[in-house]
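Aim 2 progress update. The chain analyzed this quarter is reproduced below.
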Amino acid sequence: MATLQDIRRRITSTQNMRKVTKAMELVSAAKLRRAQARMEALRPYAGAMVEMIRDLATFATEKSSFALLREHDTAKAEALLVITGDRGLAGAFNANVLRACLAADRDLAARGLGRRLLVVGRKGIGTLRFRGMTVDQSWSGKSDRPTYADAEAMAKAVIDLYTAEQVDRVRLIYNHFTSPIEQKLIDVQILPIEPQGIYTEGRERPLVSYLYEPEEAEIFRSLLPRYVEIAIYRALLESSASEQGARMTAMRNASESADEMIDSLTLSMNRARQASITQEILEVVAGAEALG
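Predicted structure tokens:
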């Protein structure tokens, strides 16, 4: 049975841990507000950009002339761009992304396809390398405040792989921010750029004839790489907000668990102290009776 000194020591250590988790919760809440503001500011532009490019890709007259629209004849390999965090203590945030990455890797192996792995975040890099997987390119230190320059570097890497026909498809795996307590895992194809569905809700979409100014080729040369950059930048911001929300929630749960443990330990301490007092009284009474 634990002594009073042991229980007091555990209460003190739990209180110290609660101070740490409470501080981390407050820091994550402040970072979440900034990350969420940046993410929400980009969402309308990113959504409009994706919709416009996919719509243009649907009705482009010379798709074979543009490398990012052209599908390769034979499927040989796929690139997985996996976005994780640089730190842990965020619940299942990193584990969910890594689980999806490993599932995708097994699926590619089962279909006899190769895999090129591009990973963002120290947690993902470390875990996948520990499992013996080859990480072709990696970026770290980007999870707190990702910049557009970071997205440009990642976009260049995947575009180079695709245009050199080293991969036939590029997939983006990350956590999409829904709320501080909910993140949605996303596994989406970004290359080749998929056209909009011709059929929507059972009705055929009307064919559209676009007038380009300047010419179609110049517009696509400029906008297609920008589309990939925006898709990756949006994923980085979504992942950053998701990480802070997951960490804030995890630290809040840890603080609440610490409170419950302190209450339980305090009750145990009071019982042990009462038992000790009762035992001392019994010993005094027994001694008095022996003398008397």
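Helices lie at 4-58, 93-110, 122-130, 148-163, 216-291. The two ends are 34 Å apart (CA to CA). These observations will guide the mutagenesis experiments scheduled for the next reporting period.
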